[in-house]
Amino acid sequence: MSSEKLQKVLARAGLGSRREMERRIEAGRVQVNGHQARLGDRVEPGVRIHMDGRPVSAAALAPTDRRVIVYHKPTGELVTRSDPEGRRTVFRRLPPLKSGRWLAVGRLDINTSGLLLLTTDGELANRLAHPSYRLIRDYAVRLFGQIDEATLRRLIEGVTLEDGPAAFESIRPLDSGEAANSWYRVRLREGKNRLVRRLWESQGVQVSRLMRVQYGPIEMPAGLREGQMKTLTAGEVRHLVELVNLGDGDGGDRARKRQRRSSPGPGGGRPGRERKRHG
């Protein structure tokens, strides 16, 4: 059996990025077969690994084919493996795996529905959700009442929330806006907790429904109903892998550094931001 770098195995298991796993190994937080691991160690399938004294499950460590599915999450489901209150989770619906396990790319809160990506590759999940790659997140949002142009302009230019500045990259109306409830499609490039709702609430606007419709290049498949899923093709998975520079070396980390230097920071006044209400 072929061996693999320890940090690669841990990242694929969904425990964090390769860089983070390297730091944990260097800090003496990882043990392999009862011995403290060292950076540069290679491991074979079947080894026993502990992190911070806790065993890493065999299912998480098992090598598996890289797969990605799109799941149409209904409201009322949690993006967690188990819930102490016994509420429904997305993982109960997913197809069983012979080895490995499904890992969610980011989260959607219990009251948000829509597109959720899940993969068997923890490093891919980590990179797709990492803010340095600035992948788009598009949402369809239904708002109570009519929204004026000044409100839209403030949300594009940027507002200050309790955890710092934030803004929508674009806001596009999906209806005439004359009814009691109006629909918009909004775009973000970060995944902070409840960010769409908090941005609208900062302007005193009530969100009555929220659904994610796109993540990176992947859009909600037409006709995919709540609770249903679709497996991405090999070409679509390859595109995601290339998008986040996932390889065996540290090319992805170098790419993140380049992207951080060239990408504008959060908040108002960012170069290249769209100020648009349509199109």
From TrEMBL:
Transmembrane parts of this sequence: none
Pfam families: PseudoU_synth_2 (PF00849), S4 (PF01479)
Keywords for the protein's UniProt record, in alphabetical order: Isomerase, RNA-binding
Domain of life where this protein originates: Bacteria
Enzyme Commission number: 5.4.99.-
SMART domains referenced in this protein's UniProt entry, alphabetically: S4
Reaction(s) catalysed by this chain's protein: uridine(2605) in 23S rRNA = pseudouridine(2605) in 23S rRNA
Region (Disordered): 248-279
Described purpose of this protein according to its UniProt entry: Responsible for synthesis of pseudouridine from uracil-2605 in 23S ribosomal RNA.
Family, as annotated: Belongs to the pseudouridine synthase RsuA family.
Protein name as annotated: Pseudouridine synthase
Species whose genome carries this gene: Spiribacter onubensis
